[in-house]
Amino acid sequence: MDWNLMIRNCVKQGFFTRALQLYSSMVMSGIHGSEFTFLFVLKACAKLSSLGDLKKLHSHSLITGFQSHVFVQTALIDAYSKCRCLHSARLVFDEMPLRTLVSWNSIISAHCRDFHIDQSFAILSRMQLLGLELSPTTFLGFLPVCSLPQGLSIHCYITKLGLDDDLPLANSIMSMYIRLSQINGALSIFDSLLQKSIVSWTVFLGAYLSCGDAASVFTVFNQMRRQCVVPDSVVFVNILSCCKLSGNLLLSMSVHSLLLKSGFDQKDPIDNLVTAMYVECKDLTSARRVFDDADEKSVFLWTSMISGYAQLGHPREALHLFNMMLRTASKPNEPTLAAVLSACAETGSLRTGEEIEQYIFLNDLGSDLRVQTSLIHMFCKCGSIKKAQAVFERIPSKDLAVWSAMINGYAMHGMGKEALNLFHKMQNEEGINPDGVVFTSILLACSHSGMVEDGLKYFRSMEKEFGIEPSIEHYSCLVDLLGRAGYVEAAMRTIEKMPAQVQARVLAPVLSACYKHQNLELGEMAAKKLFKLKKARSSGNFVLMNNMYTSLGKWREAEMARRLIDGKGLVKEPGWSQIEIDGVV
């Protein structure tokens, strides 16, 4: 029986645990392996990050007389490094009677992997003093972790040694410049390459993708195709991510067509990215077609489709798809549950939410903060603030998102004092500073509770104390706060200070406030401003104006407002309510 051959095949195919089991069986049968056996099993340990098994193998290598074998000792350095045990890796290196260039390169990579880059430079200096001939591999460990000054020094030294024409090393230098946001440096290297591999193109595509430059990504992709370079699956991952970033449906369909011709469409994570791309383009029909055509559906594919339905206003379809998923071999993960809880919040079905919460606890998925935050949001939206409080209280270590969800829950339930108390507790007891989302919830809480002075105080402190520039949402909450309390003139003065493109979002609450407080003069002024803005010409605004005229007995003006709805081709959207009876909404 050729043990080495079986162990090697297991490692090659990724069956690392099986490789270690075979080695154990081999030893128990009284057979001691060769140096090649140790190379294979040490690689398996490194892949599994199994420090316990690694220490056993190290002991066995000493017992069997391989303590001086340079290849076995070098493999031990690499394995200890990948198991995050730098101290042991360095001991092995220091005790080696003979070291090859590969041994030196391995210990440099070990220190770099553990972010001890200064020690890596010290080892490099020792190599130079010993007169060792440096190879491209010597520098590969430095490039993923070095700072910009260190990277520039390394690049200069590589050029001085004449190693800059090594293609894998050049690709790594490009990646370093991209990581350090030096796109021009990466471009310079890319243009200087006499030969470009598919990795070179992929690295450079990733450079533009990392800075959100979708146009340049496709420019490079088209240049690559003109030079007859055949894209691989990694290139398509970058291109699909770029399509998702742009949200351009026509472009996305073109890339999908090319993907089908290339035969990569059924490979994971390609099908997941295509689904997510169509969701981002708001084309749920195409996304569902890709989802249905997938032979094997991973949890990531299920999550993308469920999230798509939840995000784009189809919560019932999201919940239906989740129920389908539960009948398959794929099991939901934390992002899946967060998406499903979001859909549940939109339907307002408390019973469904409670069933999902039960599933979360039965499958031990309740420790994830995203899931806990989604549970709080869902219970608040479904009207059960007490259940939301219970979830909040049992979270031992709360992040900003958890605090924000609970504060927002209090705000939407009109519990202004509770929202403010929690806001202060978050800062004073936990030392967590609020962000713009939290301030939106605070302003909303003040608005719904009629706490005008508090609202104005927090609006001012947002920029003055926390350096948060007010957004459209903050201004909208401020105007709503003033309008609800009857300070319509102050609300109008606030609006007049805003840019024209922002006014469309905040004039409607003023019009509603004018109707509530019977202020016809300001109502007409707000309406005129509102109707001049194209984005604000919704039927709801005209209906508000009509109602205001009607309440004041101005029937002619009310009729004119009604005619404007018909004349502009607008349709009054009917109001609707929903209730839950026996778990059915």
Would you tell me the structural class of the helices and strands?
Answer: mainly alpha
Low-confidence stretches: none
Query: How many whole angstroms does the radius of gyration measure?
Result: 32 Å
Q: Quick one: overall form?
A: elongated
Percent helix, as a range, is: over 70%
Kindly report how far apart the N and C termini lie.
Answer: 66 Å
Number of strands: 0
* pLDDT averaged residue by residue: 87
Sheet of most strands: none
Q: Strand-residue fraction?
A: under 5%
Q: What's the helix count?
A: 34
Structure description:
The chain is mostly helical. Helix content is 72%, strand content 0%. It is built from 34 helices and no strands. Helix 6 (86-94) packs antiparallel against helix 7 (101-113) and helix 13 (198-210) packs parallel to helix 15. The model has no long low-confidence stretch (mean pLDDT 87).
Put the structure in a nutshell:
With 585 residues, the protein is mainly alpha-helical.
Can you tag this structure with a few keywords?
mainly alpha, single chain, 0% strand, 585 residues, 34 helices
What's the SSE blueprint?
Elements: H1 3-12, H2 16-28, H3 35-48, H4 51-63, H5 70-82, H6 86-94, H7 101-113, H8 117-129, H9 136-140, H10 148-161, H11 167-179, H12 183-192, H13 198-210, H14 214-226, H15 233-246, H16 249-262, H17 270-280, H18 284-293, H19 299-311, H20 315-326, H21 334-347, H22 350-362, H23 369-381, H24 385-393, H25 400-412, H26 416-428, H27 436-448, H28 452-464, H29 472-484, H30 488-496, H31 500-516, H32 520-532, H33 539-551, H34 555-567
